[in-house]
Amino acid sequence: MGILSHPIAVIATWLRELFLGWGLSEGLTTVLLYLIGAGALATLVQVWVIFLIWFERKIIGRFQDRLGPNRVGPYGLLQPFADLIKIITKEVIIPRDADKAVYLLGPIIMDAGVLAIWAVIPLMPMVGMDVNVAALYTIAVGAFATLGILMSGWASNNKFAMLSAFRTVAQMIAYEVPTVLALLIPVMLAGTMSLQGIVEAQHVWYIVFAPLAFVIYFIASVAEVGRTPFDLLEAESEIVAGFHIEYSGMVFAIFYVGDFLHAFTIGALGAVLFLGGWRGPGAEAFPLLGLLYLWIKAFLVYFLVVWARGSLPRVRIDQMMNFSWKFLTPLALVLLVVVAVLDRFVVDLGLWGRALSHLMANVVIGWLVLRYLDHYDKVRESKRQMVAQPGQYPVARPPVPVETPTEAAS
Amino acid sequence: MTAMQIIFLITAVVTLFAAFRVVTTPNMIHAALWLIVALFGVAVFYLLLQASFLAMAQIIVYIGAIAILMMFVIMLTRREMRDRGPQTGSQWPWAAVLSALMFGGIVWMVNSTALPASPVADVPETSIADLGRALVNPNGFVIPFEVASVLLLAALIGAVFVAWTRRHS
């Protein structure tokens, strides 16, 4: 067992022997090792956000025909550090009438909810907690992120923050359903809820089996993170900044880190569930290579999130709710039933036969959905009425009966 | 004392304190938040008992539901969201006597039961798979499971019917 093939296992064994040599008991050593592992993972992932911020600003800059950060360090790589120093030196202002304890707990719980997902992500073969309810766990701890936003929105004692908290809860309830349904499809195909098991079962990536499920999962989780085009909880033009309007300095920075990390986390989860996780040539022999593959795939999905942010406008709140309840949820339900029934019949066809039949089913469903959307669009188009016409009456004044002030005066 | 026992004791103290705060805090939102802490403590107990599925279900159902409960508290109460009057009803001595009796009874019952010193059997690895099979097994729990589904479906349809606005054309 060399340091190159099993780096984490080597370090863990060394630490375990060190602690046992100090005379600590077996149970205490295990707990200490778990604590150290959790602390290291949480710290490394949060430090990684510094790079994510640079990456996202650079990509968004390119989308908007700018260069992005390019002054501090090579390619502007040190720009996030400059921002970091700036935000650390800023004053933390707590509103006088805020509920202080809840106000300060909100960002921490939001960040913790995102970090907790990383506990079960299989970073490489044989690394990461292999929990047999991992898929369910990611949904369960995801609720904490929403709870943190709700808490800070309420505790800020600000009406915009409160409105944002209301929107957050509505959005969470609406988009949790399609997320769970889409998540169930890899679980069903792999026959296990353990994320490590799902990765090991993906001899063919599940995006080949169920591209529609990946699309549903992607859209619904972008909505759960609250990224553009679903960033109604911080819509600048409507509610100023939403839930973090009253936050400043490092307390705001925790929200900022949590937001970026959440977006990357859904990238990593999407890579694990649909893109084969750490799978790749030579990954089983050299686990570190698996980590690299996972990171590349996570960045692919993360890039899609940034792409959507750079090119789509924000949707209206009724459009957002309708899209989840009237489109994504029924589609996910149909897909779930089709995959469940079809898998019974094609399970003996061999790996590629099974994959291709699932792919065909997905293509047929996708084609039917597109036809339906076309039809829906035509019906809507035919129902459109003219509300105003230039020349007859002004556009800004719809035809409502208006009492004239002269009659009221006489 | 093993590490497991230390974790159990910490969780027990936190859960009990949170449960106590749920009924004593005058602020309704704080009560809801303390309730989350208490229910999360219960989820940790499930984990200590290796019932991981139950723990996850506890977190999903209760934490998610309490967020919604908080919304109702905010929308249905006045601006202060604070209980101003006395926090005990007129019959609190009777309630106290009854709960003391109940607690004494439970303590007596647990004390008089002979508990095995070590776990009777290890929890099997495939407990979730067994649970899933039991839910769809005709000899298992398929009827209660289906009845619960029909009940929920009825509630769903009822909610849609109540919220439905008839279009006048």
Task: Please provide a written account of the structure.
The complex is a heterodimer of chains A (410) and B (169). Helix content of chain A is 70%, strand content 0%. Chain A is mainly alpha-helical. In chain A, helix 13 (317-346) packs antiparallel against helix 14 (350-383). Among the domains of chain B are: 1-82, NADH-ubiquinone/plastoquinone oxidoreductase chain 6, subunit NuoJ (Four Helix Bundle (Hemerythrin (Met), subunit A)), CATH 1.20.120.1200; 134-169. Chain B has six helices and no strands. Chain B starts with a helix and ends in a 6-residue tail after the last helix. The chains are: A mainly alpha (410), B mainly alpha (169). The A-B interface holds A 25, 27-28, 30-31, 99, 102, 131-133, 136-137, 139-141, 143-144, 146-147, 150-151, 154, 162, 166, 169, 172-173, 176, 193 and B 2-4, 7, 27, 29-30, 33, 36, 52-53, 55-57, 59-60, 63-64, 67-68, 70-71, 74, 125, 128.
Summarize the SSE layout with pairings.
The complex is a heterodimer of chains A (410) and B (169).
Chain A: H1 7-21, H2 26-63, H3 79-89, H4 100-117, H5 134-155, H6 159-190, H7 195-201, H8 206-209, H9 211-225, H10 236-239, H11 249-274, H12 287-311, H13 317-346, H14 350-383, H15 405-409
Helix pairs in contact in A: 1-2, 2-11, 2-12, 4-5, 4-11, 5-6, 6-9, 6-13, 9-11, 9-13, 11-12, 13-14
Chain B: H1 3-24, H2 28-48, H3 52-76, H4 92-112, H5 127-136, H6 142-163
> Helix tally of chain A?
15
Q: What structural category characterises the helix and strand content of chain A?
A: mainly alpha
Oligomer: heterodimer
Q: Measure the end-to-end span of chain A.
A: 99 Å
Q: What is the architecture of the domain at 1-82 in chain B at the second tier of CATH?
A: Up-down Bundle
* Count of helix runs of chain B: 6
What about the largest sheet of chain A?
none
Computed over alpha carbons, the radius of gyration of chain B is 22 Å
Question: Structural class given helices, strands, pairing of chain B?
Answer: mainly alpha
Are there runs of chain B of 5+ residues with pLDDT below 50, and where? none
